[in-house]
Amino acid sequence: MANLTTTTSAEFIPEVWSKMVLKAVEDNLVLANLVTRLDADVKGRGDIIHIPNVSNLAANDKIAGSEVQLQAPTETSVTLTVNQHKESSFLVEDIADVQSQYNLMSLYTDKAGFAIAEAVDSSLAALASGFSQVQGTFNTAITTDVVLDSIQDLDDANVPQSDRHFVFRPDVKRDLLDLSTYTSKDFVSGGPVQSGMIGDLYGVSTYMSNNVLRAGSNTSNMMFHKEAMALAMQNGPRVQSENSIRDLGSIVVADALYGVIELRDTFGVLVRT
User: Fold this and answer.
1) What domains appear along the chain, each with residue ranges and CATH number?
2) What rounded mean pLDDT belongs to the chain?
3) 0.70 surpassed by pTM
């Protein structure tokens, strides 16, 4: 008896959905590309990552004839739990697939990827409200002083100059246009080299994202160093599909399993507008 198998029907089986979701995720991630990534620590198994803190040591005066002053800091750790499981799914009925002049599977698989990317970035953006360092006032346009004070907060904490980032909502970008520093030649605003990048403000790479947390008219923008937050993507984005005889259509499910955490509080600033 001859059967139609995945081998004989290989020409009818699309192989691009997963890549499309991956591309959609990469194109729409802003925050996830700027933080510490711990994906490799949970790729195999497990749901908790312990990240130990290492304290600074003091420089003591050496007194002639006396022993050195040994130091033994009591260390703590930060725990990241992989507890976020997001999915985006849809069903395309056979009749719609047949009669549509567009590839509905491809179009909506791309949208599923966007949904996953948005969920990941939104989880990271929500961490801004936990930063103890705060600059600016809610429902108030950003000022040069707010920008400079945010930078000083990180300077005062001896945060490395590299890997610092501002991430603002689009309306804050509009307010930044009124600041001479933003529009001067010192602000590099050529073609984006990364998703969401809009320039370099006082030496800090600056990005725009609609995923920045907003509650009513209160916006929680962020300035942070890469080590302020961490993301562990354990699984995904992946795509699974099946044909549903009951529904006479094809079901597609995109999902991702991940966790986020604030790593270093002094490495981040909540910039309120």
Assistant:
1) 16-51+77-125+231-262 (3.30.2400.20), 133-230+265-272 (3.30.2320)
2) 85
3) yes
